[in-house]
Request: fold
Amino acid sequence: MPTRPVDQRNCVHLAGARALSAGTVRRLWAVLGMTGLFMIVEAIGGWLSGSLALLADAGHMLTDVGALGLSLLTAWIAQRPADESKTYGYQRWEILAALVNGAALFGIAGWVTIEAIRRIQSPEPVRADLFLGIAAAGLVVNLISLRILHGAHTSTLNARGAYLHVLGDLLGSVGALGAAAIIALTGWTLADPLISVLLAVLILTGAWRLMRESTDILLDAVPGHVAMPDVQRRMLSVSGVSAVHDLHVWTVGNGIVAMSGHAVVPSLDDHPEVLGGIRSEMAGLGISHVTIQLEVEDECVEAGAAVHQSHDHGLPGHRH
Reply:
């Protein structure tokens, strides 16, 4: 099939991918330091006070420290340019980090649930005064951390994973503070494991969302904001395009969606205009990297007929 040099004005390359900005990286480092220090305080306080809610929150903070560190590492790796072996670059390291973050949250939530059930069956004494003081301090630390990350969590899936960890910690602190207040006022120690189960459910909700989005990207699923019928309809609306097939849409990495497909045209005379029209239509769907193979109508029909007639398996009577 004849081909022509591609007009570079109608090409869209992978330059639009979003990485963590320098400001976001600084915010992550600040939150990492605060989280690491308070995690130690909360773990010691949970052990001394006998509070499962504090220990659960400390365990969650441990995953936060790992998740934040992993986010920083993978953000640095993702900034490496594409090379001959990684032609799309290293952006999916951030997606892998988000998946690991989600899996870690699942593990923590499972441990908290099992321990809470054990404590419901066999209640243990809790030092409400120490519990209350540390829970209040944890709430303050997590509010500060959330404020630091505010506005940065929508930049990449990796940053959102870190934000969800801190948000989970904040909810954990609120729950721990509520349990501490109930125990201090009423002496009802079952409030500690019951609220811990509620926290585990909240953690699981965020973890499930994060893992689902990460897995979809790794499996090259069509992004949620794109409907394939819309892609087909928009391509067919371009002047000169009579048919389309072999359409694929996927997310390469944070902030960039790619599409490839075949478009059938009467001739290649107007190929720059056709490619430009398709590119413009795809941009309206948030698709920034477009690769299109143009096919001429008559040649497609002739080639299809030739292939159909020559398709013989060599078996008697077996010919299409």
